[in-house]
């Protein structure tokens, strides 16, 4: 429900195209979700508008729980929408998640999705699927702490280091269950997705390739400012953690998100 056009006093990015609305220009603001946009972008605005409570206005940065919905499975809409789009048209692309998308577009779309909060603009208009992959990776990398959390980081590394596979699996399952609910559900959702990618012959992205890409993104370091030595030592171990997580059976991951999977399909 747009209100009559208003004059912009402070330059702000348009909720649809992401570029700035300059001082003194006219813009349109939605009464329900407070989305601000250029008058010319009104046509492309997502028609279904979700009233934005203060709780659901997404921050520019935060921990994963800050972006998660209030009902399970606790997977942020941005993650669900990127994964759904990638599975719809990306599983025949070579080098999925390894081939970079155009950086400027990745940044623009990430900003656009974060500004939209729960009411996301459709990603089907993004021609290059590698841009969608880039948005997902950039969102996960930009969290204030990695998905496995700072406090559980050492436990994940230790569990993945256990030489006996069965013992390592048991330890990893235990550590996964200790994650905050939003982190655990999102990790489960991502693991099921990455298993699909690894099984697609066209993608040529096996578990080893995917763990190299997602090790730094999902596991990260045990603090916000790691030393150069920690960075060097962590890198191979991060990949090992993701590879071990991907070796756990899909039924384990479905236990967290499977029952409510139908809630995850974006409307």
UniProtKB/TrEMBL annotation:
Pfam families in UniProt: C1_1, RhoGAP
Family matches, as InterPro entries: C1-like_sf, PKC_DAG/PE, Rho_GTPase_activation_prot, RhoGAP_dom
Domain Rho-GAP: 62-253
GO cellular component, one term: centralspindlin complex
Single Gene Ontology BP annotation: mitotic spindle midzone assembly
CDD domains named in the record: C1_MgcRacGAP, RhoGAP_MgcRacGAP
GO MF, one annotated term: GTPase activator activity
Domain of life of the organism encoding this protein: Eukaryota
Assigned keywords, A-Z: Metal-binding, Zinc
All copies of domain Phorbol-ester/DAG-type, residue ranges: 1-49
Protein name: RGAP1 protein
Organism: Drymodes brunneopygia
Species lineage: Eukaryota, Metazoa, Chordata, Craniata, Vertebrata
